Amino acid sequence: MCRGLSTGQMYRQGKAPDMAEVRNRLREIVGASTNWKDHQQALAERASLSQYLAQSQDELPAKTMKDSAIEAHLPLGTQPALREKYLNYHNSVRFGRILEDLDSLAVLICYSHTWNKELKRSPLSIVTALVDKIDMRKNIIYPDCDIKFTGHVTWGGKTSIEAKMHMSQYHDGAYTDVLDATFVMVARDPENKRAAFINPLKLESPEEEAIFQQGELNKTRRVELSTASLLKVAPTAEERTLVHNLFLNTLDTRTVSFRSRILSPNSVWMEDAKMKGNIFNRIFGGFLMRKAYELSWANACAFAGCRPTLVAVDDIVFRKPVEIGSLLLLSSQVCYTEGMHIQVRVHTEVLDPLTRQHSTTNVFHFTFRSLSLQCPSPAGSFQWVRYPNKGRFLIWLKVTARID
Predict the structure, then answer these.
(1) Per residue in 198-227, pLDDT tens?
(2) How far is CA 68 from CA 2, 77, 108, 158, in A?
(3) Which is it for strands 341-351 and 358-369: parallel, antiparallel or unpaired?
(4) Strand pairing report for 201-202 and 63-64
(5) Who's near 366: CB < 8 A, 6+ residues apart?
(6) Among residues 94, 185, 201, which one has the least CA distance to residue 132?
(7) Which domains does the chain have, with CATH numbers?
(8) Torsion angle of the four alpha carbons 89, 94, 95, 100, in this order, in degrees rounded to the nearest 10
(9) For 346-378, what is each residue's pLDDT tens digit?
(10) Per-residue pLDDT tens for 61-83?
């Protein structure tokens, strides 16, 4: 790696970084170290960088989309030794590792947008706010073919940034599309205690204007979905009717009792479609996404009785960091099925062992496709469930969702 050089400088020297170089560059930008003792020292030194923070966005020079454009490679084909890290026992690529790479790349894209070449270290702490969406264009990721990531900033506010990334893989003599991802990052002060200003985005063409406007629409949609939460708004008439119909499907007409329920054929109770895991210490976004995905995949596999294929990743919200010394609890729940598709919700919460307080840190939604045509439907027992395309949550009261 060209140490001390920005990604743009690496490109000018004719070299696009691989994912190892992306992570090395991030360590240089923030002054982090893989050694725990040195890392603690670096964290203490970062506090002094607050003096370089802008007091308003007007103090910062505008940046273009080209300033943050990055291409990075994952040489699974040309570096066989690297495959061991990404290969799973099904002779396929561990998608959780891909999520880690996307998160690292999104952070570097945002640092490229806010980079001040006069400083050795960035005074900003760029953290993942949410993963807006990951669209799978191809379900097969080959373990022995090179992967290419590209991306850049597509929208920017005063303290938040949207970064879009594209992943393709070289196979049969050409690169083919694999996925598109949209991440929203936020800028914080060096100690990650308060928001910090970012460089405004300068648009240079009608195409960039259209990309930016789509970012504005994405922001509006996220705000509308947050205001539609059941924590704030009562269920609609359509939603109440849907839940009531599902309730009637499992009602025992002989007893007409909440304690006596009938499970419809080819169905399982939601209570029996769970899986859990624990993680210790501080977790960064990419690692947490990997662990959540692996847990959701295992749950979908156990539920369907066959290997599921990932279709989409949606609505990943990072609500709070996981502090050192905390215990992170991951709980996965099959919450919806339709035809050959399974939706798994992974809820992560942090437990402070001293105060014994639980706090939600993330909620993940993964949609899988089952190769089995006999995938059972989950029936709930006071569990949260997300209905497709509604952006809202409902509670299932011991009900069954039938396969159409």
Answers:
(1) 999 999 999 999 999 999 999 888 888 777
(2) 18, 27, 8, 17
(3) antiparallel
(4) parallel
(5) 292, 293, 296, 297, 300, 310, 312, 313, 343, 344, 346
(6) 185
(7) 19-228 (3.10.129.10), 237-379 (3.10.129.10)
(8) 160
(9) 988 887 777 778 888 888 888 898 876 455 555
(10) 999 999 999 999 999 998 888 98
